[in-house]
Amino acid sequence: MAFGQDDKKPTFPLETIYAERKKNATRKVLRNFKLSLSTGVGRTYMNHKLDSFGVFQRNGNAPRIFPVGTATDPRYSNWINKVITDTLSVQPDSFLVSGDTAKLGFKGKGFNIPLNLTLQYEFLKRFRLGGGYSYEPMFLGQFKPTYFHDKIEEFKPSDSYGWMRKFYGTAGVSFYRIDNFLFTGDLQIGNFKPGNNFDSNLIIKKGLYYNLGVTVDYELSENLRAFARPSYDFKRYTLSIPGSAPIVHKMNAAYLQFGLTYSLPELPRCYLKDCRIQINHAHGNREYRSRRHPFFKKQNPGYGENYPTLIKYKGKNKRKLNPY
Question: Within a 10 A sphere around the Cβ of 26, how many other Cβ atoms?
Answer without folding.
Answer: 10
